[in-house]
Amino acid sequence: MKKRLFNSHTRGLIEAGCDEAGRGCLAGPVYAAAVILPAGFRHKLLNDSKKMTASERNELRAFIEEKALAYAVASVSHEEIDRINILNASFLAMHRAIDKLTLKPQSLLIDGNRFNVYPDIPHHCIIKGDGKYKCIAAASVLAKTYRDEFMENLSKDYPQYNWNSNKGYPTIDHRKAIVENGLTPYHRKSFRQLPSQLNLNL
After folding, report:
1. Quick one: which of 31, 35, 22, 52 has its CA closest to 131?
2. Which helix (H) or strand (E) holds 5?
3. Which DSSP string corresponds to 154-188?
4. CATH of the domain at 147
5. Domain of 62, in residue numbers
6. What are the φ and ψ backbone dihedral angles of 46, each rounded to 5 degrees?
């Protein structure tokens, strides 16, 4: 049985949910989304994006974009990740998404336990918030689908890394491709691309 998601954390305020996607990847940008939903927003598929199929996420993406009071998606490149580290890059991606909202929120709900303060808007960090609040779940869906789309398009130029399937995460097939082909310009150089003890059955 799917856990019930709540519509609001701070009732009566304009509230934006924020989440990121791609933090643990070896290649590509990190994406984030900020979403302001109307009161009473409902969809039977809405859940933590990691617990949904790709087709469910894509169906929800269209519904969220149609029904949201405001939404925005932003990214931070692999070069920026290498300069400022992935944690700060995740926060920066969320800030950029909030910057792009056409409606200014009065409160921010952040998935996770840490966040860099956004000017003039209070925030609440919620561990596993994408499984608790609808606006965070909606942000997780947008961040995930936009990033997946980016990696699928990038995979056309680098098919040997199978990014259309693994999306840049450290899967066996991805790491095997790194061993066989080296790094691309899109790999995060600050990440450990291969474990120190590597056994890929090559």
Report:
1. 52
2. none
3. HHTT-GGG-HHHHTT---HHHHHHHHHH---TTB-
4. 3.30.420.10
5. 1-202
6. -65, 125
Phi, psi of 38 (to 5 degrees): -75, 155
Please state, in angstroms and rounded to a whole number, the distance separating the CA atoms of residues 34 and 135.
8
Per residue in 2-15, pLDDT (tens digit) is 456 878 777 788 99
Amino acid identity, residue 142? L
Structure tokens at 162: 């199978």
| Residues 106-125, mean pLDDT to the nearest whole number | 96
Q: Is 192's pLDDT higher than 90?
A: no
Domain count, the chain: 1
Nearest to 134 by CA among 10, 35, 61, 52: 35
- The amino acid present at 111, given as its one-letter code, is D
Contact (Cβ atoms closer than 8 angstroms) between residue 54 and residue 169: no
